[in-house]
Write a structure and sequence with these properties.
The protein has about 220 residues and is of the alpha/beta class. The chain has one domain: Alpha/Beta hydrolase fold, catalytic domain (Rossmann fold, 3-Layer(aba) Sandwich). It has nine helices and six strands; from the N terminus they run αααβαβαβαβαβαβα. α3 packs across α4 and α5 packs antiparallel against α7. The relative contact order is 0.17.
Length: about 220
């Protein structure tokens, strides 16, 4: 999506979150506040070079995009496959203990329908339990600040997402303080929409949304 938007003439900054894109052990050492700091750093960089700032994120990135929009001025927000809460699981209440006993859990099978894109997608092979605990805490923070998000928001979700239920999109939508908020449901992708069969539809929707918000 970043390359697509850059081709449209937008300035794009891809942010690598603390503890990501290195090794799982690095993620264990990070906290959700470190992820927020990574995004805030990106905001400050863009704020020096551009008049409009849109936060765009997938999954955890969507959570961070919404959280940042409640803390700093942004022109708009685009989220994809964004979770509202972790699945109902009795182990959740013990995450802060389990992270010491069970250091990681398996990711399971991918739900990507584009197998070539799935094979080319680089990510950690496991979920560090510490990371799940931090995500749980971050989502709790996000839920409390959603009414403070007043910038226009476009939310994109896939019916084929087996990681985040479609209901999560509606739950977030209902709490947003934005007057201009819209959703797009795609059918032929998994959780990682930017690498799925519907990616160009999502890319175009994001580009059209950005142009519309700026022009208005």
């Amino acid at each position: 999506m970043g390359e697509y938007l850059a081709q449209l003439g937008f300035t794009v900054l891809g942010i690598r979150l603390a503890g990501h894109a290195t090794r799982p052990e690095d993620l264990v050492r990070t906290r959700w506040t470190d992820w927020v700091s990574s995004v805030e750093d990106g905001w400050h960089i863009l704020n020096d070079v551009t008049e409009y700032i849109f936060t765009i994120g997938l999954s955890l990135g969507g959570v961070l995009s919404l959280y940042l929009a409640s803390q700093l001025p942004v022109t708009g927000v685009v989220t994809m496959s964004t979770p509202y809460d972790l699945p109902d699981d009795p182990r959740r209440r013990f995450l802060n203990v389990l992270k010491y006993v069970v250091p990681h859990v398996s990711k399971g099978h991918t739900d990507q329908q584009d197998k070539e894109a799935a094979n080319d997608h680089i990510d950690y092979p496991i979920y560090p339990t510490r990371g799940i605990a931090e995500l749980n805490d971050l989502m709790a923070e996000m839920r409390t600040v959603l009414p403070r998000v007043t910038a226009p928001v476009l939310m994109i979700h896939s019916q084929g997402d087996t990681s985040v239920p479609i209901d999560d999109m509606q739950n977030i939508f209902d709490l947003l303080g934005s007057k201009d908020k819209q959703t797009l449901l795609v059918e032929n992708s998994g959780h990682v929409i930017p690498r799925g069969n519907d990616r160009m539809r999502a890319f175009k929707a994001a580009g059209d949304f950005i142009r519309k918000v700026i022009s208005s």
